[in-house]
Amino acid sequence: MATALLLLSLCGGVSAATPVLTVHSSDGDVIDCVKKMDQPSLTNPLLKNHSFQDYPSGMMKAEEEGGFGWQVWHRNGTACPHGSFPIRRVEAEAELSEGKYGPLISDAADRATKGHQYAVGYVKDLPIYGAKATLNVWNPVVESGDDFSLAQIWVTSGSYENQDLNTLETGWQVYPNKYGDHQPRLFTYWTSDAYLSSGCYNHYGRGFVHVNRHVALGGAIAGTSTIGGDQFDITLQIWKDPLSGHWWLGMGLNVVPIGYWPVELFTTLSDHASEVQWGGEVVNLNISGMSNTTQMGSGEFPGKGFRKAAYFCNLQIAEKNRSFLPPQDFHIGATQPDSYSVAKTHSRDCGDHFYYGGPGPLRSSSYQSDPLAFVFLFLAVYFVV
Length: 385
What we know:
Layout: H1 2-10, E1 21-24, E2 30-35, E3 84-88, H2 90-93, H3 108-113, E4 116-128, E5 130-136, E6 148-157, E7 166-174, E8 185-191, E9 200-201, E10 209-210, E11 233-240, E12 247-251, E13 256-261, E14 273-283, E15 310-318, E16 324-325, E17 331-334, E18 341-347, E19 351-357, H4 371-384
Antiparallel strand pairs: 1-2, 2-3, 4-14, 4-17, 5-11, 5-15, 6-7, 6-14, 7-8, 8-9, 10-13, 11-12, 12-13, 15-16, 15-19, 18-19
C-alpha cells in the first residue's frame, strides 16, 4: 500500500526548476529549458540513489547537430542551451495526468481498457530487450476532449491479473483540450503496477530522465501525412542498456538518444520485456451520451494502402544478443474490426509490416458531425411537410 501511495503521488504534478531559457512557440506552447540535474524525474523518491547516465552504453557519443526541426517550437530557430533540456509547461500537460486511463477503479484491466480500442501487431512470449519501428504521423479527428487517438510502441512485462504489468510506451497522440489544441504530439508513458497507482505521461510522472536538448516531450509535431500526398514519419526505438539496466528512448534512423526510464522504477521490466506491441489506440468514453467520431491513424481502413492508410514499417526487436532484427513473425489483432482494423503486408523497403486504422463507429447520420446540417435537415423536413 505504501508503494501504491508513493506512485500515485508521483503523478500529481511537477515542480519546475527555474529555467535557463524560455521559448514561446508559435502554437502557444511554452517550452522551458531546465538544467539536466534540475529535471523533475531526479526528485522522484524511487531515484534517491540514482546515478545519472548522460549517454547509452556502447554508443559513440556524437556531436549534436542543429536539431531535428520537426517540432513546432523549433520554428523559432532555437534549441535549449547545452547542459539543459526542454520541458513543456505543465499547466497544459497536466490535462494528460488522467487522460489515458481515466479515474482510479479497483480492477486494473477494466481501468486500462474500458472505452479503448486497439489495432496492433505484436510479438510475445520472448525475452525482449528492445523494439523499434517507423510510423507515419497523422492528425485524426477526435471530437471530444475526453477522448484521444494515438500510435505507439508498447514494451511490456507482467499482467493485469497480478497487478504487476510494467509498460514503456512512446509515439504520437492527438487529444483536443480546453485550449482548442488538436495536433499530434510526441509522448512517453510508463506504469509499474498495471495503471492502478502509477501511469504518467512525459515529465508529469517524474519517471523519464531527459538528456536531449532538442526534443520536447509533449511538443507538437510540425509535419503530418496527407491522404494521397506526402507521408511524414518518425522512427522510434526503445532498448535496455546492458550495463546500467535503464530503458532508453531514441529517435531517427541514426537513433539519437532522447533519454531513459531508470531501472529503479520497474519490477517485471527490471530484466527484460516479454511482449512488444506496435499500433493504434483510441478511447471514446462517450461521456456526453452521443456517438463521437474518433478516428485511428489516417481515419482510413488498412485496405486503402500506402499514402492513404497509417502504417508501422521496419519492425524490429532485440532479443538475447541485443541486436535489432526483424521478428521472425508477428501477430495482428483488432478489438473492434468493424471500426478499426489491421492488415499485414510486405514490401522491399519495409519488409513485413502492417497498415492499421479506421474511421471509428460512424454515426447513423452524417448530419451529426456538422451543426449546419441540422439546420438544413430541419428546413428540408419543414418545407416537405
